[in-house]
Amino acid sequence: MLEISELRKRFAGGPDSPEGKLALDGISFAVRPGEMFGFVGANGAGKTTTMRIVMGVLKADSGSVSWQGRPLTYTDRQKFGYMPEERGLYQKMRAGEQIEYFGRLHGLSQSAAKQAADDLLQRLGLTERRNSSVESLSLGNQQRVQLAVALVHEPEVLILDEPFSGLDPIAVDALATVLQERCRGGVPVIFSSHQLELVERLCDSVGIVSAGRMVASGTVEDLRAAESRTLRVVVREALPGWADGLPGEVSVTGDRHVLLTTHGDDQEILRRAVKAGRVEHFGVQQPSLTEIFKEAVA
Amino acid sequence: MNGLMLVARREISTQIRTKAFLISLAITAVLVGALAFAPKFFDGPDEYTLGTVNSQQLPLEAAAPDAKFEWRSFPDEQAATKAVLDGDVEAVLVDGTKVITDGEIDSQLGVLMQSIHRETKLGAAGVRVEPLQMESVGADTRYEAARTGIAVVLVLVLFMLIIGQVMMVAMGVVEEKGSRIVEILLSAVRPWQLLGGKIIGLGVLGLINLATILVVGLGASFASGFAADFPPGMVGIVAGVLLWFILGYAFFATLAAALSSLVSRQEEVGNVMSPLTMLIMASYFVAFYATNDPTGTVATIVSFIPPFSSMVMPVRMAATEVPMWQVGISVGLMALAVAGTLAFGAKVYERAVLRTGARVKLGEVLRAR
Ligand SMILES: Nc1ncnc2c1ncn2[C@@H]1O[C@H](COP(=O)(O)OP(=O)(O)OP(=O)(O)O)[C@@H](O)[C@H]1O
Ligand SMILES: [Mg+2]
């Protein structure tokens, strides 16, 4: 299990802000093996800073990161796969060679590195570009190479900062499949994203950061349960006043009556609606992650 | 260790495949080769075309074995005069008593002809003159010209190679820092491995360059006959050059990596490196001065002071005989300086290379925990 606890980080300020910027204000969460953790939060909330601290690129002012119950060491991190927010590759190096090189740096043998590189190139649809220099690739394809670099050595943990940004829908699916596979193999995966539908679709659990603090975390279901549920009923050809005495608000457009309510006896409401007219819709509205997010960071 | 070697290997294989590397290697090889043939063109053996009218040829070869003489005979003085004025011959001996030339005679040739003429006449009269014995009681100056020549070429080669490779190190460091690839590199290898691998890799490329220059230079010297002028101990000089290149390069390259890790953009490299380039230039100038006066006090003292010694000592070793103990002390001091630089450079690099953005101040890096 990867545990992040009470991380604090203040960046030194310039002459205009001598007190600096508090980027992380005691952030904590944990990711279990085989869990896909979606890390969401507004711009500047502290996602990248957290990931950089986990990868040892930055030092936290206080707090700790532990892996399998022990403080995280350099040797542990060597087995992690990391995709930084600011992409970086050797521009003049060929895509395939670059992926192989990183495989070797992480300790793979020559043949294993080549095998893994070929495999990833194929999975990510880059086989034809194997011998192209990185600078000659489109942005999205460079991004795929960057992902392959993070994945090549079969990492024990994956830390990916906005891995889906800039990918076309096909590549998104390809990457999602690869990540789900790794996850099923027992790898904890943390990725940050602003594409909340994607996070909702892929992640077992979600953490919402705001201003350096974790404001909500848990499975999407848990987060939904914590939100108030809204019952939505649509009745056609009903007489005005059919919902008098029922909780909630009714809005009418033409002969369409829409009742929205967050409380009350749903069975009683259903009976009344059936009596009043033709029930076109009756259901509990699931708040989307986007709504949960907006609520949480508000 | 593995990481170090992988990084070094990548540096070598990327550079060696670039056109720039191959072209510059070819150009230096051609230049050095041409240099070895140069003495032949400017300073080849003297050649004279001489004529006779009603005279015996003078046995000039006996007195000047290095020079070549070609003789022609003319029927009369009129024909000879025309040939002299046309520049076909330099001097014509007429009737064994006078020499005609166009303007003043080449002084060496004049002295030579006079003395041989006298000797033949005296010999004919039965007088034998023992030639003077020549003996030098000073230092062996036979090879002085060749030694100075070799030293001048060496200092140039060392300077160009060191500054070239050192700039490559600096640009490589900034490339990795600026592109942020260093973030993922450092999740796989330690900073000292990344830094050391780069320095080793580019150093090996420098050595390949240097070895090519030495092989081509020596080969061409043998081919051109210039090697005949080589001073004794040429093997020692060549070995010294390799050793001093390694020491000097290690020193300057480590500092270059440390300094360049402070900036994030290629445009800033020149600026942040300027103190170091100035130091390399200063070493070069002192070394160049030493080619002129390799036994002088300045050259002798500076050949012990790192990092100047890395260029001055090999120059002194080529230009004159340097006692072994002096070389030993100088190598020892330089090796100490390299060790110190490595410790310092690795620390600065490690602390600065992940701090992207604005230029990091050196003092700040040193003060940080
Ligand atoms: N090197 C730095 N120096 C000063 N402040 C920084 C530095 N890096 C980050 N910050 C500040 O720390 C805060 C958190 O930034 P961080 O990059 O972690 O946000 P984020 O959640 O990744 O945002 P985004 O969604 O835009 O990527 C921001 O206010 C940012 O301005
Ligand atoms: Mg970010």
Task: Give a brief outline of the structure.
With 298 residues, chain A is of the alpha/beta class. Chain A is built from ten helices and 14 strands. Chain A is elongated, with a radius of gyration of 24 Å.
What does this structure look like?
- The complex is a heterodimer of chains A (298) and B (369).
- By secondary structure, chain A is an alpha/beta fold.
- Chain A folds into two domains: 2-224, P-loop containing nucleotide triphosphate hydrolases (Rossmann fold), CATH 3.40.50.300; 227-297, 2-Layer Sandwich (Alpha-Beta Plaits).
- Helix content of chain A is 34%, strand content 29%.
- Chain A has ten helices and 14 strands.
- Chain A has a six-stranded mixed sheet, sandwiched between helices. In chain A, strands 2-1-4-5 form a four-stranded antiparallel sheet, covered by helices on one side. A four-stranded antiparallel sheet of chain A has the order 12-13-11-14, covered by helices on one side.
- Chain A is elongated, with a radius of gyration of 24 Å.
- Chain A starts with a strand and ends with a helix.
- Chain B is mainly alpha-helical and 369 residues long.
- Chain B has a four-stranded mixed sheet with strand order 2-1-3-4.
- In chain B, strand 1 (47-53), helix 3 and strand 2 (68-73) form a beta-alpha-beta unit.
- Chain B has two domains: 2-38 and 143-367, no CATH class; 47-136, Periplasmic binding protein-like II (D-Maltodextrin-Binding Protein, domain 2).
- The mean pLDDT of chain B is 86.
- Chain B is built from 14 helices and four strands.
- At the A-B interface, helix 2, strand 6 and helix 3 of A face helix 1 and helix 7 of B.
- The structure holds adenosine-5'-triphosphate and magnesium ion (MG).
- Residues 47-48, 85, 161 of chain A line the site of magnesium ion (MG).
